[in-house]
């Protein structure tokens, strides 16, 4: 694995911690609820940024979804919101269920129904053109949503460094060489689920002590995700949820941006799932970059300033406008 991949994965995190870039002005708390078979209603939270003057002229909205163990304040989410603000596009940065201590339940990589509940929220009814941008596992959830019952207002979607085969992805990140990344992801997940257990001890057949002892992603999925969400095992979860086999069902123009040097979502775990991918999936492999981190000079060929977020937004708007015109 190229050292540059590690650099572009770690450097944006360090920059975010040191400089603490602020979110766009006008960010307001947002929430909705989604039905839950185990606990009744579960609340989903977010931050909605409105450019001056309110909704954009074409009543468009960008929804951004964080990755595994992340939040709507993660280092890769803020630049997306700022890029949207720069072009006058409202942006909703959501927290998936359980994040930020706001729910009695927690998400998994295939829970696209939460995205559907966000889009269908009455508070977003004014937006007639919706774009969705998901990072890492959030990209995986975005792909699953785009292959399901998509709201007609959703015009185009994008996924950045998304896994497509959860089984092979878990095997790759559980290798000793990726211990640093695995520890970072598990730390975020443990904090989230510990909060759920404090509020609802019967949510999982696992103690706090056992939760903290988990050291691999596969063990996490076996002990935490599978029993809570009704899967027979971690492998059953991976087989039933992975986005790769669902790509042929994509219902909207979809952009997939992957890094050749990604040290977390290894290219070799992604490429097999792309064989025979549909025409509506535009796959871009980037030579320079890491996991959800890319040089500011990134150019996808769009008529927009360079940089991942600005180029991706231009792609979304262009394809969304074309879909809206047909």
UniProtKB/TrEMBL annotation:
Residue ranges of every copy of the AB hydrolase-1 domain listed in the record: 62-294
Gene Ontology molecular function terms on file: hydrolase activity
Gene3D superfamilies given in the database record: alpha/beta hydrolase (3.40.50.1820)
Alphabetized InterPro entries for the sequence: AB_hydrolase_1 (IPR000073), AB_hydrolase_4_sf (IPR050960), AB_hydrolase_fold (IPR029058), ABHD4 (IPR012020)
Ranges in coiled-coil conformation: none
SUPFAM superfamilies according to UniProt: alpha/beta-Hydrolases (SSF53474)
Keywords per UniProt: Hydrolase
Domain of life: Bacteria
Family membership: Belongs to the AB hydrolase superfamily. AB hydrolase 4 family.
Name the record gives this protein: Alpha/beta fold hydrolase
């Amino acid at each position: 694995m190229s050292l540059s991949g590690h650099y572009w994965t770690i450097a944006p995190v360090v920059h975010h911690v040191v400089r603490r870039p602020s979110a766009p002005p006008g960010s307001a708390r947002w929430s909705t609820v989604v039905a839950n078979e185990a606990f009744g209603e579960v609340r989903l939270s977010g931050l909605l940024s409105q450019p001056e003057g309110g909704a954009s002229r074409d009543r468009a909205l960008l929804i951004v979804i964080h990755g595994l163990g992340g939040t709507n304040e993660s280092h890769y989410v803020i630049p997306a919101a700022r890029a949207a603000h720069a072009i006058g596009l409202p942006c909703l940065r959501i927290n998936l269920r359980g994040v930020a201590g706001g729910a009695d339940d927690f998400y998994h990589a295939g829970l696209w129904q939460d995205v559907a509940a966000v889009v269908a929220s009455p508070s977003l009814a004014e937006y007639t053109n919706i774009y969705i941008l998901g990072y890492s596992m959030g990209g995986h959830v975005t792909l699953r949503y785009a292959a399901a019952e998509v709201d007609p207002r959703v015009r185009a979607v994008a996924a950045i460094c998304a896994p497509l085969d959860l089984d092979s992805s878990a095997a790759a990140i559980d290798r000793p060489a990726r211990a640093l990344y695995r520890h970072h992801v598990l730390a975020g997940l443990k904090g989230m689920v510990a909060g759920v257990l404090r509020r609802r001890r019967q949510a999982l057949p696992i103690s706090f002590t056992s939760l903290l002892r988990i050291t691999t992603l596969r063990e996490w999925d076996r002990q935490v995700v599978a029993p809570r969400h009704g899967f027979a095992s971690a492998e059953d979860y991976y087989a039933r949820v992975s986005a790769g086999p669902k790509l042929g069902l994509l219902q909207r123009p979809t952009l997939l941006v992957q890094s050749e040097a990604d040290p977390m979502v290894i290219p070799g775990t992604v490429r097999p799932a792309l064989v025979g991918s549909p025409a509506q999936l535009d796959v871009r492999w980037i030579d320079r970059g890491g996991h959800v981190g890319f040089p500011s000079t990134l150019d996808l060929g769009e008529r927009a300033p360079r940089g991942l977020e600005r180029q991706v937004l231009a792609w979304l708007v262009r394809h969304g406008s074309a879909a809206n015109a047909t």
